[in-house]
């Protein structure tokens, strides 16, 4: 029954995503528009220059950036007024970057500088670009090693590293806006923003190959939720209990949110509606009063219910769930089970249930690949395998 649900939901999402790709033609900027390659894709700007070569105005006409990441855009653009080709326009010296949006700030600055000087902007430094490729690969390798070796400490090392790098340093974590931008043709080029593509690839290719390893061991907001929950347990706070029937029904909310937001973006042709995740407010420190209240509510609920946001509401988690349900490698039951149900008790997200014969059934769409069930089974009746046995 659950497999049919995954098939139907995945098909519905692919149809919506495909419709966005087909019915929204690629946008070409009007002639004379200044274009920069921002974090989320092309940024179209109008630049006005006086007869003596001074900038009199700079305005963004069209962009695909997540709103919370560029909250200081207007004040940033005002810094260019009065500048001319004699100014070096060096970010961090002549121009202050938008906090948490360095890639976008650098792209706009380089585009303006190139327009004023008539000379092509130099390519971005190789070092930071390589770091955007290598560091995510290192963290992913750490997460895979934790799963294969069943080392919870190694998994926490991956979570902590991701919290620092993806969350605090780069403010870059997988969000629903990314696959929707790709569907609408708004995505940045790999050469300008490899990190955008690395998070997308690690999460979705990883989900198809090895299940929800990104959600389980790499998502920075997951580390926040887990940390709060474990801290509460350490202080003997009582966890909330939800009836299995209510739990199953509530988990469908994230799939409804996924399909609803995708449909809304298809109709509007814009991806701003996809910026609903509370981790954007948490890591950027910016958001409306409603966004801050929602973040606070999610953090409080995660104290009493393990990964509340992930289990019930996260739309990008719903998308990785649909992929993980058909992943190549899965945790599956193998012969030898003694019906002790230790695996069910060890699963922190209740992805394991026991059938009428007392044998475990794993919901691979909900499984976070944390390996706790593998460690809990006394007879190794659960294994990470490529095919059913």
What does this structure look like?
The protein has 389 residues and is mostly helical. The protein folds into three domains: 2-20 and 127-324, no CATH class; 34-117, Enolase-like, domain 1; 330-385, Alpha-Beta Plaits (2-Layer Sandwich). The chain is 52% helix and 9% strand. It contains 17 helices and seven strands. A three-stranded antiparallel β-sheet has the order 1-2-3. Strands 4-7 form a two-stranded antiparallel ribbon. The chain has a two-stranded antiparallel sheet with strand order 5-6. A hairpin with a 5-residue loop joins β2 (42-49) and β3. The longest helix has 24 residues, at 126-149. The radius of gyration is 23 Å and the shape is elongated. The two termini are 21 Å apart.
Portion in beta strands = 5-15%
Count of beta strands: 7
Overall structural class, as computed from helix and strand content, comes to mainly alpha
From the structure provided, what is the oligomeric state, counting identical versus distinct chains?
single chain
Succession of helices and strands: HEEEHHHHHHHHHHHHHHEHEEHE
* Mean of pLDDT: 86
Rough outline:
elongated
Radius of gyration: 23 Å
Going across the biggest sheet, name each strand in turn. 1-2-3
* Integer count of domains: 3
Most strands sheet: 3 strands, antiparallel
Number of distinct helices = 17
Helix coverage percent: 40-55%
Distance between the termini: 21 Å
């Amino acid at each position: 029954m659950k497999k049919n649900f995954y098939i139907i939901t995945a098909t519905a999402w692919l149809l919506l995503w495909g419709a966005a790709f087909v019915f929204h033609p690629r946008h070409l900027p009007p002639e004379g528009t200044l274009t920069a390659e921002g974090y989320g894709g092309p940024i179209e700007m109008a630049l006005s220059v006086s007869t003596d070569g001074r900038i009199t105005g700079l305005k963004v006409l069209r962009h695909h950036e997540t709103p919370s990441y560029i909250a200081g855009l207007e004040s940033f653009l005002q810094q260019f007024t009065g500048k001319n080709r004699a100014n070096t326009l060096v970010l961090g010296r002549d121009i202050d970057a938008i906090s948490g949006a360095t890639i976008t700030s650098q792209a706009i600055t380089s585009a303006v500088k190139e327009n004023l000087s008539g000379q092509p902007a130099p390519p971005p430094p190789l070092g930071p670009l390589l770091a955007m490729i290598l560091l995510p690969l290192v963290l992913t390798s750490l997460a895979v090693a934790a799963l294969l070796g069943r080392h919870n400490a190694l998994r926490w090392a991956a979570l902590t590293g991701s919290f620092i790098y993806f969350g605090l340093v780069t403010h870059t974590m997988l969000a629903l806006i990314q696959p929707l931008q790709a569907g609408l043709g708004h995505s940045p080029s790999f050469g300008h923003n490899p990190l955008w593509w690395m998070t997308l690839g690690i999460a979705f290719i990883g989900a198809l190959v090895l299940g929800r390893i990104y959600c389980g061991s790499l998502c920075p907001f997951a580390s926040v939720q887990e940390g709060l929950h474990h801290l509460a347990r350490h202080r003997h706070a009582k966890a909330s209990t939800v009836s299995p029937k209510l739990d199953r029904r509530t988990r469908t909310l994230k799939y409804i949110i996924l399909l609803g937001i995708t449909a809304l973006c298809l109709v509007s042709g814009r991806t701003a509606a996809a910026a609903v995740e509370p981790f954007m407010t948490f890591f950027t420190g910016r958001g409306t009063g409603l966004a801050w209240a929602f973040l606070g509510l999610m953090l409080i609920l995660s104290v009493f219910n393990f990964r509340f946001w992930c289990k019930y509401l996260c739309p990008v988690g719903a998308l990785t769930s649909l992929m993980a349900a058909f992943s190549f490698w899965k945790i599956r039951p193998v012969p030898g089970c003694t019906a002790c149900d230790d695996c069910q008790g060890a699963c922190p997200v209740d992805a394991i249930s026991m059938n009428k014969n007392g044998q475990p059934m794993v919901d691979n769409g909900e499984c976070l690949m944390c390996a706790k069930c593998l460690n809990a089974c006394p007879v190794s009746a659960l294994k990470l395998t490529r095919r059913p046995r």
